[in-house]
């Protein structure tokens, strides 16, 4: 569910944390790690402090544009724009021009650049937002250093060190060296600007006087650092190279062998532009170059917004948000690493259409959820349909994802829509997706760190592939969408619209690398790059050096007396904490969990990344109910409830569950509401029936209504309910026969005491290291669940494998086949975690936070296995497939899964039937029946081993696997052992053999 976190230097001591709380990694945790903070020896601000007069010196890079002159057109924040084209910029140094602007009392400016002849660079129509001090704008990237500074340059006297730094891995567009000669002082951060030497290399020659070595760190000018995992680099005189944290002393010039590149790429050919509503897709053939094309510049003219130039690295650009019924012209240039630019392509002209209407709201399919096997995906790791919304976040480099070009936010709704047919071809008719709300944390791709619960995270959406589009596309294929939802906690930065904390970020220069410069005109959405910081993970709105109005945090902004590992001063209220008053008690709980089987587990924080809502607060309840009403209205088919055990059952039963039912009924009617599927993660990671003897912490407990009245006050009622049920104990809990046959007879289930919450079968999950063990444990718990036929059953997930394993299931293909055969025929709803159909990442650690790349974990990107085309002929049947996805669909477990889904779909008893083992011998053998109106489905099942059934109805039974027909006249039927992973399903008056022989079902 989470990503493991390491706390930052300022974090408070933590209580014991369960392994299942795999919480997000804090950026501050990496102060001493690669690319996360300035040198510990040199705690200095990210950029120089603004001059007292309020000036900004703007440097603009001209080589790529090749303009003969450049003008700065600007407006101080709150002031008026200059008269176009603005003020002419003066030459600064090779390829750079500059202009110093007096801002008066303003703290920044908005700007655009032009050649004075009608060609503009206005940041794609959004202008540039620039702060004070020294600012560089290079190819659309805003940074903060003087590219022409001669700080430390070799002067011919004293010792010199020439340093080459490689940026091929980091992808930085500029580099600075922050250094101190041995025995000397550090430069002022961010240090001296390095010059481009050749493709992927930056260079600086430093005069270090009598010193024979220096300590150094590198940064991109926007707060991203490489300080050699907190130890800095030690460099000698002479020539040194630093590449991927390796220092080579006395190195050869890495650019010496490369002759100056003066040849421009060829002009891109076959430029096309096609419009859909007010979006245009521009495509072209790749240009050629002797050293390689590194980017393309797409120039758009037309409309009222003027000329724009957009840089892309692919051969396609999606241009959105254009004006309706407007003609636009596009030309494309190619550029190489040396800055050589081709001539412009031939133009492509296109006229936009009408503005696209919002997609119509969906309607839940409303069928019995037990009919629908579930495929569970981490949306951001499944399939990448739109690379433009990919984001790596603050931990992109530290995690190792950058080295593999594998941003944490990679998959998206567009990719999921494109591969719905793959999921349907497997045979699944429901897709459980991870939370969709806007997240905010440093490693939040999984979705469990909600920040704006009313907004869909734009890192998941694309033009024509919104969340609504996904819901509608799934419904059009007869497939349901189950949305993962979180009621228990928000992100570490609170919940937008309810409460977000203001932390003490920058009292002195030490923390400016972490807290970004405030931009009051910018709203965080996880996707958009904030222009002053150059980050999509900007956090300048979260901190203040002045105590905020209404602050409740004790000793806000005062030193704690402690220091971080780097020697930084640690301040109160600098990091989320439940015990400091930072989070007001009317919205958030005020304690750490001390006992995971105690009452405090329902009313205290799991982790500093997971700010624990006071779910008994009316304001919190209204916020959450209102948020999730939005997604109900969109037509989702159900909710998976995250961390449900950490909210009192009485709060679920009083507030949240009735609110769900009321909204679905209001919008879609009682019939749809009855089948709106709510299933919960009640984390009981033990093998016993009752979680260490605590009924309040056991999964089945949550399937029941309350048995008595409690106080009208929700906080008091939660305590009363906890004490009452604990005192009654496990022996006095309600029991149910809803999952069991009465002999051979199906009976109408009694749901009068059902809470409306169903559960993930944690006990079977914990025991799925062996199918027989899972089966035996599941049966043992079923009488304490209101209706176990609604249990969601899986082997492993994004949290754990069986027996609380931290790795993806690796029991082998035969064992997987056996597990699947049991899940698809026993009571409950079979569920598969993405990729398990190919044993994807088997044995790999499920999650390690940012301490290793996602590609090495159980949450790796699956899209490489899905490349190509696929269409589904029906559920469990492939129509056509090409490329890698065709190979995936040919895997043995996939074939096994497809046939299991077809058999289950054809036999209602396997979907909704009650079961019994009375009169049956055999290891995993049972009978199931479902009766409703004209439907009467009766099946005899045995998995792997042989079985004998006695006392069964006489009649003709046909095996759905082999087609074998048996006529029973004496109430007895015997079945030989089918073999590991195989099964027999003898159906009374059944449909006959379903599908053909496969690797296991035969």
From TrEMBL:
Residues 339-370 are annotated as: Disordered. Residues 264-355 form the Fibronectin type-III domain. Its cofactor is Ca(2+). Residues 341-352 have a biased composition (Low complexity). Keywords: Carbohydrate metabolism, Glycosidase, Hydrolase, Metal-binding, Polysaccharide degradation, Signal. It holds the Pfam family CBM_25. One of its GO terms (molecular function) is hydrolase activity. SUPFAM superfamilies: (Trans)glycosidases (SSF51445), Fibronectin type III (SSF49265). This is Alpha-amylase family glycosyl hydrolase. It comes from Streptomyces achromogenes.
């Amino acid at each position: 569910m989470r990503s493991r976190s390491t706390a930052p230097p300022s974090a408070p001591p933590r209580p014991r944390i369960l392994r299942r709380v795999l919480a997000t990694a804090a950026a501050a945790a990496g102060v001493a790690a690669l690319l996360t903070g300035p040198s510990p020896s040199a705690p200095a601000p990210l950029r120089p402090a603004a001059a007292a007069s309020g000036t900004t010196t703007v440097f603009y890079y001209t080589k790529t544009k090749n303009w003969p002159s450049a003008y700065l057109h600007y407006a101080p924040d709150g002031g008026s724009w200059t008269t176009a084209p603005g003020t002419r910029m003066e030459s600064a140094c090779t390829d750079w021009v500059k202009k110093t602007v007096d801002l008066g009392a303003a703290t920044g400016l908005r700007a655009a650049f032009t050649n004075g002849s009608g060609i503009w660079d206005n940041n794609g129509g959004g202008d540039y937002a620039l702060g004070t001090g020294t600012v560089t704008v290079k190819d659309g990237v805003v940074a903060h250093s003087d590219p022409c500074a001669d700080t430390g340059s070799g002067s011919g006297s004293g010792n010199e060190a020439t340093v080459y730094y490689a940026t091929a891995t980091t992808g930085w567009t500029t580099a600075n060296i922050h250094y101190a000669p041995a025995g000397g002082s550090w430069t002022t951060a961010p240090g001296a600007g390095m010059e481009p030497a050749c493709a992927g290399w930056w260079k600086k020659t430093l005069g270090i006087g009598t010193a024979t070595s220096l300590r150094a760190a590198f940064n991109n000018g926007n707060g991203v650092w490489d300080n050699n995992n907190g130890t800095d680099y030690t460099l000698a005189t002479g020539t040194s190279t630093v590449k991927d944290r390796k220092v080579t002393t006395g190195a050869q010039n890495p650019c010496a062998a490369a002759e100056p590149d003066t040849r421009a790429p060829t002009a891109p050919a076959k430029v096309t532009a096609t419009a859909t509503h007010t979006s245009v897709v521009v495509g072209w053939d790749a240009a050629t170059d002797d050293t390689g094309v590194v980017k393309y510049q797409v120039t758009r003219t037309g409309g009222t917004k003027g000329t724009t130039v957009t840089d892309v690295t692919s051969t396609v650009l999606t241009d959105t948000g254009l004006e309706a019924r407007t003609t636009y012209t596009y030309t494309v240039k190619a550029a190489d690493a040396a800055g050589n630019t081709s001539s412009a392509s031939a133009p492509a002209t296109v006229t936009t259409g009408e503005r696209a209407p919002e997609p119509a709201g969906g309607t839940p399919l409303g069928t019995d959820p037990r009919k629908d096997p579930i495929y569970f995906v981490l949306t951001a790791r499944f399939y990448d349909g739109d690379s433009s919304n990919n984001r790596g976040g603050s931990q992109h480099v530290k995690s190792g994802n950058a080295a593999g070009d594998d941003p944490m936010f990679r998959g998206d709704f567009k990719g999921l829509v494109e591969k719905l047919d793959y999921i349907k071809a497997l045979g699944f008719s429901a897709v459980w997706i991870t939370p969709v709300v806007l997240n905010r944390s440093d490693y939040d791709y999984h979705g469990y760190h909600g920040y704006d619960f009313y907004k869909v995270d734009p890192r998941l959406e694309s033009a024509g592939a919104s969340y609504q589009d996904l819901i509608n596309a799934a419904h059009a294929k007869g497939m349901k969408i189950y949305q993962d939802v979180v009621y228990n906690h928000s992100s570490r930065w609170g919940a937008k619209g309810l409460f977000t904390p203001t932390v003490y970020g920058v009292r002195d220069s030490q923390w400016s690398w972490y807290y970004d410069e405030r931009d009051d005109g910018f709203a965080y959405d996880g996707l958009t790059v904030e222009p002053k910081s150059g980050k999509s993970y900007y956090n300048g709105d979260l901190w203040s050096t002045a105590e905020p109005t209404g602050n409740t945090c004790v000793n806000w902004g005062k030193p704690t007396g402690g220091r971080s590992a780097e020697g930084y001063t640690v301040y109160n209220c600098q990091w989320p904490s439940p015990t400091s008053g930072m989070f007001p008690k009317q919205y958030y709980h005020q304690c750490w969990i001390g006992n995971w089987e105690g009452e405090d587990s329902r009313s205290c924080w799991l982790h500093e990344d997971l700010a624990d809502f006071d779910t008994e607060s009316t304001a919190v309840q209204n916020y959450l109910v209102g948020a999730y009403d939005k997604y109900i209205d969109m037509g989702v088919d159900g909710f998976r409830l995250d961390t449900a055990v950490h909210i009192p059952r009485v709060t679920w039963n009083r507030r949240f569950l009735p609110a769900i039912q009321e909204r679905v009924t209001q919008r879609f009617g009682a019939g749809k509401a009855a089948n709106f599927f709510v299933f919960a993660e009640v984390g009981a990671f033990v093998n016993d029936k009752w979680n260490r003897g605590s009924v309040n912490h056991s999964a089945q407990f949550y399937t029941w209504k309350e048995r008595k009245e409690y106080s009208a006050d929700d906080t008091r009622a939660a305590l009363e309910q906890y004490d009452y049920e604990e005192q009654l104990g496990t022996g006095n809990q309600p029991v149910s026969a809803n999952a069991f046959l009465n002999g051979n007879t199906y009976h109408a289930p009694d749901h009068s005491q059902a809470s409306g919450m169903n559960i993930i079968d944690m006990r079977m999950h914990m025991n799925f290291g062996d199918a027989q063990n899972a089966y035996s444990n599941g049966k043992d718990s079923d009488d304490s669940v209101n209706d176990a036929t609604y249990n969601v059953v899986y082997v492993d997930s994004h949290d754990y494998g069986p027996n609380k394993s931290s790795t993806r299931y690796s029991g082998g293909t035969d064992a997987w086949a056996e597990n699947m055969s049991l899940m698809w025929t026993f009571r409950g709803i079979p569920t598969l975690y993405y990729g398990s159909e190919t044993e994807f990442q088997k044995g790999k650690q499920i999650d390690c936070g940012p301490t290793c790349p996602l590609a090495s974990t159980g949450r790796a990107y699956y899209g490489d296995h899905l490349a190509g085309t696929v269409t589904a002929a029906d559920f469990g049947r492939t129509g056509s497939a090409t490329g890698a996805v065709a190979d995936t669909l040919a895997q043995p477990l996939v074939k096994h899964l497809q046939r299991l889904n077809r058999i289950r779909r054809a036999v209602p008893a396997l979907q909704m039937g009650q079961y019994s083992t009375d009169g049956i011998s055999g290891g995993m053998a049972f009978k199931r029946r479902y009766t409703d109106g004209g439907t009467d489905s009766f099946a005899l099942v045995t998995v792997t081993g042989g079985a004998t059934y006695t006392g069964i109805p006489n009649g003709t039974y046909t095996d759905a696997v082999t087609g074998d027909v048996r006529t029973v006249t004496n109430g007895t039927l015997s079945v030989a052992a089918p073999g590991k992973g195989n099964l027999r399903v003898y159906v009374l008056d059944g449909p006959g053999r379903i599908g053909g022989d496969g690797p296991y079902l035969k």
